[in-house]
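Quiz preparation item.
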């Protein structure tokens, strides 16, 4: 029997889905992250997971984005061959209209991150379109829809290789994961695709991230086939690397490992790996012609009783308005700080423009002398908010600008997400600066510390403009101190050694 899907129902379903996943973690992710929290023995990692869990609950209650990077939307469609669509638009146009409607929702506007013309102008489309659409025609008279939002931090860590048929997948994964750093915001999951062709392997990996996290159940019952045994093997060996939450060192780097396979050429072994971050966001539903999808929100009782609060006894309170180079030089690796006062923000586009202005000998629109810069592109505020969710972006993208900023602008410290590369660490050491890490996956929680916000420069860059934030007790960790010591090197090394000698309660 033919099913008719109305245009408005399809568009509304996509719009509702992108809103839904912006503020609700899937229950399976919460369950596994809560187990990881209980098992964690690294104080830094446990604190990071507490922030992520607290942020998640706040977002569910306030219906605001889990992460400021509300991602590129991926839509996977399995369309029954007995389905007709009451529309004159293409499937891409229908999905884009749903994304546009969802991202521009005035009650919960989502950050527009998609840029047109990726090579040259890189101009923001302002509504997060176009999305990425994958269509499969299948028997039946319904439409199965999966909607996911993939942030840049985790998407940028996607990896692909054409292995020889005799090469070990396990060896490749264990060699590759440490090089991904922590910019993908662990703990999350790894999606692996093996076989087909290059593009098929990547699609298999991405699709595997839509599957339910079930490693806890798998470990309890044991593997029933070779793929499940391989998943367990990779799960245990990746966690034994000691990378831990946010790359700070700890017991849990991944909550699950998924593997999808497809037949391939006898001479080939294409493998792809894509991580899902602490802002794991996806939902699936079925359209049968009866109206738009009805998405069932999780119950607040699904969240563990974890409520992160600033630790005033163990953290150093820092006044940014009177901060000196001598104070910055006194900070120690792994020390937790609570920042209060004014800071500037700036990401890739702002740094590039600053560089160009300095090269032309032009004065900068803001004075960075003895100031701190926060690598962030916030979500627009709603109602009584000062700013929307405002978590850190991956700091390594600013590495090539670090020496310039420290040498020529008077900047004395930086805040971002994950590790810094050798180039930036050397610049930090040479200039006696510091790099501070905020927790990726705690964007709404971080925004609660921001008491005032104004655009200070480059308004045309949208979320990549330079803002001035006035913060109160914003939590950060000293990730690179003035001597060039990085906790993203020392932490995982310490916990990699410890893990071999301590009993681990698995997720």
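Solution:
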């Amino acid at each position: 029997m033919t099913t008719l899907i109305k245009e408005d129902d399809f568009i509304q379903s996509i719009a509702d889905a992108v809103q839904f996943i912006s503020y609700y973690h899937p229950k399976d992710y919460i369950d596994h992250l809560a187990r990881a929290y209980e098992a964690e023995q690294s104080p830094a990692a446990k604190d990071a997971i507490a922030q992520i869990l607290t942020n998640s609950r706040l977002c569910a209650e306030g219906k605001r984005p889990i992460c400021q990077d509300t991602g590129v939307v991926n839509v996977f469609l399995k369309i029954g061959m007995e389905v007709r669509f009451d529309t004159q638009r293409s499937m891409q146009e229908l999905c884009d209209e749903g994304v546009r409607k969802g991202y521009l929702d005035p009650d919960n506007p989502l950050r527009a991150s998609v840029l047109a013309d990726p090579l040259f102008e890189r101009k923001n489309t302002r509504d997060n379109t176009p999305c990425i659409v994958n269509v499969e025609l299948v028997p039946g008279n319904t439409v199965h829809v999966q909607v996911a939002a993939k942030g840049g931090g985790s998407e940028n860590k996607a990896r692909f290789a054409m292995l020889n048929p005799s090469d070990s997948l396990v060896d490749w994964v264990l060699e590759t994961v440490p090089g991904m750093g922590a910019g993908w915001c662990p703990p999350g999951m790894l999606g692996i695709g093996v076989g087909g062709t290059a593009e098929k392997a990547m699609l298999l990996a991405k699709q595997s991230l839509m599957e339910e996290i079930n490693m806890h159940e798998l470990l309890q019952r044991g593997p029933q086939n070779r793929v499940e045994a391989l998943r367990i093997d990779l799960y245990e060996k990746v966690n034994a690397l000691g990378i831990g939450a946010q790359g700070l060192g700890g017991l849990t780097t991944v909550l699950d490992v998924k593997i999808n396979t497809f037949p391939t050429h006898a001479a080939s072994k294409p493998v792809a790996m894509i991580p899902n971050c602490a802002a794991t966001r996806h939902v699936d539903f079925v359209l049968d012609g009866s109206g738009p999808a009805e998405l069932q929100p999780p119950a607040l009782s699904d969240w563990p009783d974890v409520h992160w609060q600033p630790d005033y006894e163990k953290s150093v309170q820092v006044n940014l308005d009177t901060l000196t180079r001598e104070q910055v030089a006194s900070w120690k690796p792994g020390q937790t700080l609570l920042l209060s006062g004014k800071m500037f923000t700036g990401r890739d586009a702002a740094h590039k423009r600053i560089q160009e202005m300095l090269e032309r000998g032009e004065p900068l629109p803001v004075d960075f002398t003895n100031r701190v810069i926060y690598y962030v592109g916030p979500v627009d505020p709603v109602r009584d908010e000062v700013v929307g969710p405002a978590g850190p972006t991956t700091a390594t993208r600013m590495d090539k600008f670090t020496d310039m900023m420290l040498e020529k602008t008077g900047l004395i410290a930086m805040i971002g997400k994950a590790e810094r590369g050798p180039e930036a660490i050397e610049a930090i050491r040479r200039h006696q600066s510091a790099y501070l890490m905020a927790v990726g996956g705690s964007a709404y929680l971080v925004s609660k510390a921001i008491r005032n916000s104004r655009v200070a420069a480059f308004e045309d860059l949208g979320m990549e403009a330079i803002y001035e934030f006035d913060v109160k007790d914003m939590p950060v960790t000293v990730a690179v101190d003035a001597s060039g010591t990085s906790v993203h090197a020392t932490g995982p090394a310490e916990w990699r050694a410890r893990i071999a000698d301590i009993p681990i309660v698995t997720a």
